[in-house]
Amino acid sequence: MYLCIKRSELKPGMYVVCHGRGTFDSPFVRVDSVTPYQDKIDSLIPPDAEFVLIDGSRADVISTAAEALSETASSLQEDLAVARQLHADALDYVKQFMENVRHGTDINVGKAACLVDRFVESVLRNGTAAVTLFKLRNFDEYTYTHSINVSILAVLLGKHLGLGKSSLLKLGLAGLLHDAGKEFVPQHILNKPGKLTGDEFRVVKAHPLAGFNLLRKQRDMQVDVLQAVLEHHERHDGSGYPRGLRDDSIGLYSRVLAIVDVYDALTSKRVYKEALPPAKALALMYSMRDTQFAADDIDNFIRCVGVFPTGSLVRLTGGEHGIVMSINPGRPTKPQIKVVLNARMHPVLPRMLDLEAMEGTPEAQDIAEVLNPADYKLDLEQFLSA
Length: 386
Ligand SMILES: [Fe+2]
What we know:
Hypothetical protein af1432; alpha+beta; binds fe (ii) ion; 9 strands
C-alpha cells in the first residue's frame, strides 16, 4: 500500500519508494530505500522535495529498521519526565564526585558509566528533550551542571557524526569527567571575573593533565577517554594547551569536547557574566572557524543543534513569543515552536507551531528575533511541561 506524505513527516525506518513534487518540472524520482537517521535524510531525499511516496506494506522493514536505529517514538512530555530524574541523579553524582576528588577517595567510575549509559539512551530516544531541559537548568550551579551539559551535548554531537553506541558511551564519559582536574584549581582563580595573571593562568592550564593523571589511575579507564580529557583545550590552530597540538593530531573525541565545552561555557551564566543566547553563541563560534576550531567541526555542530537550538526563546513575526522545541534539519530556520507568551510577554495557553508546515498558509510566521530569557527574568523550564 503506497502512501504519499510530506517530506517533513518522514521518519527513520520508513520505506521510501520515490520523492519529488509530482509535477512536470519535478517528477517523482525513484529511491527504493529505507529512510536512515533523521540527520542523514538529506543524503537520501533532497531538501526541496515536497512529497515522498512510502510503501506502507513494508511494515516489517519499518519496525525492524526503526528498532535498529533506536528511534523510539515517544512523547516529549514522557521524555522530559525521564530527563528530570536523570538530571537529578547526575547532579547527585557530580556533587559526590567532586567531594571524593577533593578528599582523595574513590571516584566511582562505574557509576559515571551507568549515568552516561542513560544519557546515551535519552539522546537516542529523543535527541532534544534531555538536552533542552538540561540547558535550561543552568541557574547558578555552573560548577555542577557544566560537566553534565558537556557530556550530553557531546553524545548528541557524536550521534550526529554517526558514531556507534560504544563510541557514544566513551565520549559521554569523557564529557562528564573532562574537568576533573579543576578540583585542584583554587575557586578564587576559577571564578575570577577579570583577566588572570600569568601565574594564575599557568595553574588553570594544568587542569587537563591533572585530570588525566587522576583518571588514569582508575581501573578499566579507556585510553580514548583519557586522551579526550587531556586534549579538550587543544585548538585547531595550535593555540591550545597543554601540548599545542594542531589539526588532525587532536583526537576526534577531544575536538567534540572542545566545541561543546566552549558552547556550554558561552551559553551559561557565571558569577561574572550573563549567559549568551544559543544563537549568538553559535554565531561567535562560527567566527572561530579555521582558527580555534576546524571549519568542518563547527559546521557539523551547527547542523546538529540547529541555527536556533532547542530551548531558544524567540519572538515570532506575528509578535508572540515561544520556545524552540525541536529543530528541523532540512529547514534550519523553520523549527517547531511552543508559543507561551503574547506580544506583551504575558503567558498564554501554550500551543505548538510548526513553522515549516505553516509556510504558504495565511498563518505563516518566521522567527523575527532571538531573545535572552535573563533580560526578562524568565525561567523557561516552567513552560516546558505546560
Ligand atoms: Fe577544561
